[in-house]
Amino acid sequence: QVQLVQSGAEVKKPGASVKVSCKASGYTFIRHAVHWVRQAPGQSLEWMGWINAGNGDTKYAQKFQDRVTITRDTSASTVYMDLRSLRSEDTAVYYCARDNMAFDSWGQGTLVTVSS
Amino acid sequence: DIQLTQSPSLLSASVGDRVTITCRASQGINTYLAWYQQQPGKAPKLLIFPASTLQSGVPSRFSGSGSGTEFTLTIGSLLPEDFATYFCQQVKTYPLTFGGGTRVEIK
User: How far is A113 from chain B (nearest CA, A)?
Assistant: First the structure.
């Protein structure tokens, strides 16, 4: 079965960077794009960007354009999301999700806490 | 960006009730609309995409309708496991956007 397994919770100081991983299994990795979505406490969902797992092309939300990088390692069937210059407002659960027109499979979420 | 407005934001209902959630888009998105269910502390789960197509394994008490700018999610008869938060999402245009969510709580 399709599964996306994310790395564990992180606590970071303002100004630091965080890198969250998302390991895919149960399908042909390069055939589906992977998106990143975040959810601040008590808030709705916010799309951050996606990567074409086949050719590595990326597209980011303008809000995150200068702070986020999404990469993938096809040999490890893993996608990474790197967010820089963290601030307190970046405290959220970060999800990866498989693209199948809509998001048909999601990782379990990674809590990133930004606090001094 | 396409704004999605969900209503109501909070819905109080009882087991067995029929409930309807509305999602309005700021511009036409054909049927490029998805509905998700999220239980507390869990990742969202895809219920319906496009607008009226139930995903495999989703109970038939869930249904979706609409096209263009107005969409609805209906739960025919609420079961205890249906008390959750529901989000709509448009996948027609980047940036992809979500509605603000509708929490369905027990009355």
Answer: 16
B95 interface with A at CB cutoff 8 Å:
yes
A80 within 8 A of A70, measured Cβ to Cβ: yes
Distance CA A114, CA B106 (A): 34
**pLDDT tens digit sequence for B20-59:** 999 999 999 999 999 999 999 999 999 999 999 999 999 9
Question: Residues 6 or more apart from B22 whose CB is under 8 A from it?
Answer: B6, B7, B70, B71, B72
Between the alpha carbon of residue B53 and those of residues A115, B27, B31, B86, B103, the distances in Å are 42, 21, 10, 16, 22
How many CA atoms does the CB half-sphere of A93 hold within 13 Å?
18
Q: What angle do CA A29, A71, A50 make, to 5 degrees?
A: 75
Predicted pLDDT at A99: 98
Binding-face residues of B in 41-80 toward A, CB within 8 A: 43-46, 49-50, 55
Asked whether B51 and B22 are in contact (CB, 8 A), the reply is no
Neighbouring C-beta atoms of residue A62, cutoff 10 Å: 9
- What is each CA distance from B34 to A77, A105, A107, B71, B76, in whole angstroms? 26, 13, 18, 10, 18
**For residue B23, which of B43, B45, B44, B52 has the smallest C-alpha distance?**
B52
DSSP-derived secondary structure letter, A36: E
